[in-house]
Specification:
Layout lengths: L1 E2 L5 E2 L5 E4 L5 E4 L11 E2 L4 E2 L30 E5 L2 E7 L6 H16 L7 H6 L3 E2 L16 E4 L5 H9 L3 E4 L9 E5 L6 E5 L12
Parallel strand pairs: 10-11
Antiparallel strand pairs: 1-2, 3-4, 5-6, 7-8, 8-12, 9-10, 12-13
Length: 209
């Protein structure tokens, strides 16, 4: 997040993946930076969580605000294992789109390389992406568009036509608008590290040393 002279911050969800030479992996999706009323507990040094905004104030629902209940959350930092060994860490900001975009990415990687050596991480990230809004949003005012599919303009025209023929309400979104994925991987056989970052938004970086 950016910090103004008066100390106020403006930011949004971000995602970070790290892997070292020994195969230790971290996937983290810090969020809540756009909320200015999130106080730090002085004795502990960290802020209170902000995910209670996902709870519903209407009683009797699975996600109703009730003592002892965990609210629904969109945050999905992910690590994939092969034979019990971490091989891939990945994630993205994006609210309710996180699970969708990450599943698309993971399937592209898994189908191409079966989560083994030679992962084409950048190709999976750069592939045309999409999302749907058929389920009520996690965020107020809980909007939804049943049957909708939003795709990037780079999506194959035949795919778009096929979706419309099947009754989907297809919206062509802005170029490079679906996803903010990044990922790191380690081949457990060779120890080779690889990383990829998303060109969408011009905010993703893959670095190594």
């Amino acid at each position: 997040p950016t910090v103004a002279r008066d100390g106020a911050t403006r930011g949004d969800t971000c995602h970070l993946d790290v892997v070292d030479r020994w195969g230790n992996m971290v996937a983290a999706t810090p969020s809540g930076g756009w909320l200015q009323s999130n106080p730090v507990v002085p004795e502990l040094g960290f802020p209170l969580g902000t995910r209670l905004q996902m709870a519903w104030l209407e009683p009797g629902l699975p996600n109703s605000l009730t003592p002892g209940r965990r609210p629904r959350t969109t945050l999905t930092p992910s690590i994939a294992l092969r034979d019990g060994v971490p091989v891939l860490a990945f994630g993205t900001p994006g609210g309710d789109q996180q699970d969708q975009w990450q599943l698309h990415f993971f399937l592209a990687v898994a189908l191409r390389a079966q989560v083994r050596g030679g992962l084409d991480l950048q190709g999976a990230i750069d592939a045309p992406n999409w999302h749907n809004d058929s389920f009520p949003s996690s965020f107020y005012p809980r909007g939804m568009r049943p049957g909708s599919v939003t795709v990037e303009p780079s999506m194959d025209a035949a795919v778009v036509e096929g979706l419309r023929r099947r009754g989907h309400d297809v919206t062509i979104g802005e170029p490079w608008s679906e996803g903010r994925l990044c990922a790191v991987a380690r081949d457990p056989r060779t120890g080779v590290l690889s990383a990829a970052a998303n060109p969408r938004g011009m905010q993703g970086y893959a670095v190594g040393r």
